[in-house]
Amino acid sequence: MTAVESDKMTTNTSTLPHSRPALPRIVTDAMPVVVMAVGGLAAFWLFPNDLGLLTRILAAALFVMSLDMVLGYCGIATLGHAAMFGTGAYAAGIVAVNWVSDPLALLAVGGVAGGLIALATGALILHARGLTLLMLTIAVAQIVQEVANKARDWTGGSDGLSGIDPAPVLGLFRFDLYGRTSYLFALAVLIVGFLVARRIVRSPCGLACRGVREEPLRIAALGGSPRRYLVSMYAVAGVFAGIAGALTAITSGIVGLDSVGFSWSAEAMIMLVLGGTGRLYGAVIGTVAFMAIHHILASTDPFHWMLFIGLFLMGIVLFLPGGIASLSARVLPLVKGGR
Amino acid sequence: MIDAPLLQVDGLSKNFGGLQVSSNISMDLRKGDRCALIGPNGAGKTTFVNLVTGVIPPTAGTIRIEGHDVTRQSAEARVRRGLIRSFQVARLFRSMTVREHLELAVLERTGRTFRLFANVRRIPGLADEVAELLEGMGLTAVAETAVGTLAYGQQRLLEIALALAMKPKVLILDEPAAGVPHSESHRILDALDRLPDDLAVLMIEHDMDLVFRFAKRIIVLAQGQLLCSGTAAEITADPRVREVYLGSRAHAH
Predict the structure, then answer these.
(1) B198: which residues sit within 8 A by CB, 6+ positions away?
(2) Domains of chain A: which residue ranges?
């Protein structure tokens, strides 16, 4: 509010900052979907022996995307997002073992479970902000993990829940030994999930959540309740995380305590920061990058891979603060003639 | 009740412990009023705005909007009744565009923000209303610009546009020209001149040129009390005002 800023007004009113000559919206909208579909299918042909890993990556990407809805769009700092993922995974797993084995129904079960736990815990903890909130999210995940650990009859406790044997997708596509169905199923779920999530973050509610992230007091001044927006989006993201958990349960056939673990929450955050927050597709990029590097390094140098992951992360944070996804925003203008 | 003032403040007082920051302030605003609230630093102008808008509860007194007692109601409830304020320090969503700000304000007013699957760009009537607001404040050219990179004066104009987006009946402008260089304040004044006629406006401002050109009626606060009120000519002629306010400012300039 000083002279410097005041001066800006005089100059800027005549030379307004130009918005970049953008590609038509339909192109930019279709691009991530096309890349995901083509890339996903290419990986299917190129790495037929790694479909297990690739399927885990896809499910993780959906999970990280749901974290982006919370962290990137609402600004909720959370290290307990695995609570929703794990609840979805266990719910789908328990239902699959005892009652229903249709994979789409199981995804729905996971989504509902994830959404409900997010709604209940979100309503309890989202009055807090910053570090307090961070602590509370960790506490929630720890409680969920402990419940899963103690409820051995249902969850298998520390042995994990196994024996999940999903029926064929739509009654047509059997889950095969090589994981082909699993992979393609996960790819389809991820792409549909991306489209739905994008729709949501662009909705009026998504817009309001971005407002809460930036300036909650202003939202209140406009007559809105910041907390209601946060809780709604937290619950919606919980649905996505729950579906991601269910997808992991269906495609891997087991659910373990690590699916609710602290390190899973933390890794998801690392993947998101790596890829770039607030974009949704950044979550996919970050997950693919992190898990691929993790896999390659861990198999070539089992002793020092953590060090390289750490260096890689530091490099990204220092030199590409917007994450890998911000590369496109930086490189595209250069390609199009320096402006 | 047809003639009830849009805003009626009666005997408003606020104590912080033993410190009385507002005492027994009464005033009202009617349709079309262009009123300014002035006073030296520490006169309690900001406290008064916070009391009226419901940020802090008063110790005594009543606040009515169109005859409805809102003294015990929340800030949000008062907003819904049409009491809207703009902020002195720009509280804007820095990474969001000018258009998004106005979309959000209009959606909030019409209670459509909880639609999860609606496409903001396709909500009927929204684009037109936003275009009108942009035009009104001369912000059309910067509609797609992120607010964080906007010139300060334009942020102030957006601040006013945001308030207008909420279809206020009573508009409180908290230093609309704060931080804007004197040579540019006419832009703000031009924008203020285009405010809807039936709106009641209360402006808190230090820029005396702006105050005298905008306000038909001026209220002077000093030490938490209402000193006097009247037209620009009456105020400048009042010796008490000269003493507490204009005199000291005249020396400063």
Answers:
(1) B31, B32
(2) 26-334
